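User: Before I run my own analysis I want an independent prediction to cross-check against. Here's the chain; please return only the structure tokens and, at the end, one sentence I can use as a sanity check.
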Amino acid sequence: MYDDGAYGDGNDDDGIYGGVIPSFQSGAFVRYYVEARMGGDDGATTFSPDGAAHTIYCYTLDKIAANTTPVVINGIMASNQTTAADPQGDYDDWVELLNVSDAAVDISGWCLSDREDDIRKWQFPEGSIIEAGEHMIVWTDSDDGDEPGLHTNFKLSRDGETVILADSDDNGNAIRDKVVFDQLEEDCTYCRYPDGEGDFTPMSPTFALENLSSTGVEDDAALPQAFLLKQNYPNPFNPATTISYEVPRSCRVQLTIFNTAGQKIATLVDDYRSPGAYSVL
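Assistant: Structure tokens:
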């Protein structure tokens, strides 16, 4: 501690001392005590509070909530059984983020957590950039370090919990977005509708796609029940034809044209699709 007027201690050499407690992250619980020792080997020592270090002072840093955010939590899947596999082929749960701004956002160092008392539980690695309007999938599978893909060091509970998106350490870990969800059924997502800005609601699965419909899981009977590739129409055709297909769950769809010799002519579709009926010309 110092008596130089530079640490909130009044004037220089006035017998009043001040110091600085090192910075801590948002939400941290800090314990401390003060020890004052006179110079020399036999100098007297006193503590505040009396009985330190068994008796201490403590405080909790308030969490900071950001007023705006360019990236939001857009969807949660807490019981993925058949919807979409991660790059390792496992059906793990995920959190979907969405860049709602009109510019790319670097979220390197941002944090994702399922605990109010540890909002820095998992940090995005360097190079985590979301382009404008782009969705990002983070696999909540306790497989942190797996590549490719982003994999957290925690899992979600289908019985319900909290997901928190916080800024980097340099920005005080300000909370950018927070979602509390109740128990979810298998292969049911909890998503914003309209996409990126609306309230959260249980929905039929979407995966890295815009939440276009507020259709709830109770309407699943209206969705396709199996994968189906229909006969193109017209056939024969000249110069164009339409190919229709149906997808019962969110997954990556690849539609490729081959000639009679087995040679690849063109790839018409190579992207994720949510459940529904589609056609391509």
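Sanity check: The CA atoms of residues 6 and 12 lie 8 Å apart.
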